[in-house]
Amino acid sequence: MAEILVVTSGKGGVGKTTTSASIAMGLARAGKKTAVIDFDVGLRNLDLIMGCERRVVYDFVNVVHGEASLKQALIKDKRFDNLFVLAASQTRDKDALTKEGVEKVLKDLAEDGFDVIVCDSPAGIEKGAFLAMYFADRALVVVNPEVSSVRDSDRILGLLQSKTKKAENGERISEHLLLTRYNPERVEKGEMLSIADVEEILGLKVIGVIPESPDVLQASNSGNPVILDEQSNAGIAYTDAVARLLGEDRPMRFTTVEKKGFFAKIFGG
Amino acid sequence: MGIFDFLTGKKPATANLAKERLRIIVAQERSTRGGPDYLPLLQRELLEVIRKYVNVDVDAVKVDLVKDGEHDVLDISVSLPDKSS
């Protein structure tokens, strides 16, 4: 049975695609046969973050419309041969995806022996976001320690509890919070919401905290998801988050300020 | 924070303010969630009508749909201002 994991947030620009790419790659590296699907029809971007943008021939909408087979459209990753990307279409037709079409693709992937299907949701609460979450077993809600992101996450959590197939069947999808762009220095200064603040407001524990890091942009620039950067705190934090998703118990890292020297303390450096 | 920070004119920290504002708005939005779509509109129109007669705050009118056994009860409460104000 394939597990369907939606990466969602409501608000745009919080790191959904970055997270989808790194989580999918981490799951594949852990041995899971993984597919990652870009649901952002019209604004394809997962391919760039995964570094396979020049190998997109067919896309998700082609498969839904029967213009290509799943096999033709799945792009095999060059780093892990158990990882596949399904790109979003660049069509402007908002109704290109249908519930039945999406269900069929997910079912076919499950029958193909995939262990995990990661659904990279578009921002907002329109059709694309709804379809990305509808069939999910689990949800990873990406949130920044910032007011609009936290509010939108609460809205999304509400939708996950009411507008998904599991919810309609009286079940509950398991929800996880992933806090990204976290800056312990600013938290310590009282300038940024802390992990505890976000957990308290949303009533949910975080499954991972990704520190704000210049490595994330470097990773996007080069098309190598940041999880592959073993020197990077953000990469290591994603690796930890994947381990926790797989049931491992790991302490949080990079969530407190590293000790400063005497002079730095005195002069506020 | 260093002891000379006051010289640089730093602004006061705002994380607590963010938390308080979020706590209130999230609680308010959760309370209307799942209810029928007409509730917010009903609340707004009721408020307009009441304000023709009494000068109440914008949050004075609360409209909730509560389950009471087999029935749905529309629970409307209006808090009036103090006489002195």
Would you give an account of this structure?
The complex is a heterodimer of chains A (269) and B (85). Chain A has helices spanning 16-29, 46-50, 60-64, 70-73, 99-111, 127-134, 147-160, 165-168, 184-188, 195-202, 214-222, 233-245, 262-267, and strands spanning 3-8, 34-38, 75-76, 83-86, 116-120, 138-143, 174-182, 206-211. By secondary structure, chain A is α/β, with parallel strands linked by helices. Chain B has helices at 15-32, 38-53; strands at 61-68, 71-78. The radius of gyration of chain B is 20 Å and the shape is extended. Chain B has a two-stranded antiparallel ribbon with strand order 1-2. Helix content of chain B is 40%, strand content 19%. With 85 residues, chain B is α+β, with helices and mostly antiparallel strands. The A-B interface holds A 146-147, 150-151, 154-155, 158, 162, 187, 189-194, 197, 200-202, 265-269 and B 1-5, 13-16, 18-19, 21-23, 25-26, 29-30, 33-34.
Record keyword descriptors for this entry.
heterodimer; A: 269 residues; alpha/beta; 8-stranded mixed β-sheet; 13 helices; 8 strands; B: 85 residues; alpha+beta; two-stranded antiparallel ribbon
